[in-house]
Amino acid sequence: MNVLIIGAGYVGTTTGLIFAELGHSVTVIDVDQKKINDLQKGILFFYEPGLDTLLTKHLASGNIKFEMDHQKAIKDNPLIFICVGTPQNQDGSANLDFLREASEFIGSNLYEYKIIVIKSTVPVGTSKQVKRWIEYKKKDSVSFDVVSNPEFLREGCALHDALYPDRIILGSENDQATALLQELYKGINAPFIVTTPSAAELIKYTANSFLATKISFINEIAILCDKLHINVQDVAKGVGLDLRIGQLFLDAGIGYGGSCFPKDVLALIDTAKKNNIDLSILKKVHAVNENQPGYLFKKIKTRLISLSAKKMAVLGLSFKAQTDDIRQSPSLKIIQDLINEGAMVEVHDPVAKLPGDLMDKVFQKDSPEEAMTNADAILICTDWPHYKNIDWPDIKNKMKSPIVFDGRNMLDAAEMRSIGYIYEGIGCE
Hints:
Blueprint: E1 2-6, H1 10-21, E2 25-29, H2 33-40, H3 51-61, E3 64-67, H4 70-76, E4 79-82, H5 97-108, E5 114-118, H6 126-137, E6 144-148, H7 158-163, E7 168-171, H8 175-184, E8 192-195, H9 197-228, H10 232-240, H11 261-274, H12 280-304, E9 311-315, H13 330-340, E10 344-348, E11 363-364, H14 368-372, E12 377-380, H15 392-396, E13 403-406, H16 413-419, E14 422-424
Parallel strand pairs: 1-2, 1-4, 2-3, 4-5, 5-6, 7-8, 9-10, 9-12, 10-11, 12-13, 13-14
Helix pairs in contact: 1-3, 5-6, 9-11, 9-12, 11-12, 12-13
């Protein structure tokens, strides 16, 4: 099939490459000329394991192309996926400006039947709004259908999640559109859930908000574990083995970040508010997450008392391992608190880079060992696997003080203490 992707961001590029891998002919368009130029050369602007190989493969095969000729792209493709960003407004609601722009452009260039698929994460009722935007701009009495097909990609695992999804959600009110999209996904073994567009939109927000709830819940339990001198990892394991609960997203730490959970939780709270519903549990989920980096910082202050002129080594900038995404990263909040207290901060991350506003205040090192040498304390903020394999006995001898604050509970507490470290995790005895 001929498929058009509007938006060459994280979701759009990944979606396009997966459809190319399934044998479809994919065109990706964007308003960012540099981004398109880089993708044409096989250069990804974000880090995601495996996608660079797929990009090289399908540029060579001709299954995917990146273009700036938007009118021709709409004309040539019967299936149009909208994958533009829906950033967060100051009040927590979703900003749909990019979605409206894409919808009106489709309407202005609609001269034959098309299926428009919304892949972007959008509030309930947006599919209806997209229909209205397209109707307002289209010149002919041509028909079209709008389908909601939310993505469930985890950053760092996007390729696996796209090829082996838990489910494919189709919010469709037209049998022809449903059948065509099921054919598009042929080759992927996953259950299809066919529902209304509004239900599909709510499924996306509900899924992310529930996962965020699990994280904030175990983080509150971790604080209680600290007071009771209980290891939260034992609690999480004992609880997670209950099949009704499951072990995923029960890792206590400094909270969630990234481009999805923070904004999706707030967007769902906003949707409920507009419908006179108070989602009090989700409000607490958000509040717990906002406070969690501060909980680790209190541990640091209690142990070190004064941070003035102390060298602090921070391991990890990205909000999670296997990605370079620093949006809403708890690490950045902690780094800013350290700076405010007069600390000298050196950081390491395998792929993520410091944001511009911190580059003149923080030193980013090429290796974790460089950052940790002569440090008064080490903070682990991202659970990159190779931090486990650091030569911790050797590093201890190179530090001013052998203190480790593990914001991800990724190291073995007993082992670190046996080496001679003062080790503090989150609810980790």
